[in-house]
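Q: I'm building a small set of examples for a reading group on sequence design. Run inverse folding on the following structure and report the sequence directly after it, with nothing in between.
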């Protein structure tokens, strides 16, 4: 979901997006997600949303060095995963 002063855009993977004009429809009763007239606005907000999603941190809070130091240490710690 992304919101501007005027627009609220909600994206659901595999479903028609929702778009609301918050200035003209503050109660979000009129979904413009399938409106051809608003296609450019939907595309612009979609791009902004996915630009933001691509730049956010997708890694755990541990550093690469910390993850590497813990990898393969299960046997030393007394647990085995996937060993039969």
């Amino acid at each position: 979901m992304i919101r501007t002063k005027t627009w609220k855009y909600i994206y659901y993977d595999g479903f028609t997006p929702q778009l609301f004009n918050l200035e003209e429809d503050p109660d979000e009763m009129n979904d413009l997600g399938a409106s051809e007239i608003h296609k450019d606005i939907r595309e612009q907000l979609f791009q902004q949303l996915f630009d933001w999603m691509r730049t956010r941190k997708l890694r755990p809070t541990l550093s690469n060095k910390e993850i590497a130091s813990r990898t393969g240490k299960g046997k030393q710690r007394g647990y085995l995963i996937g060993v039969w």
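The chain has one domain: 2-64.
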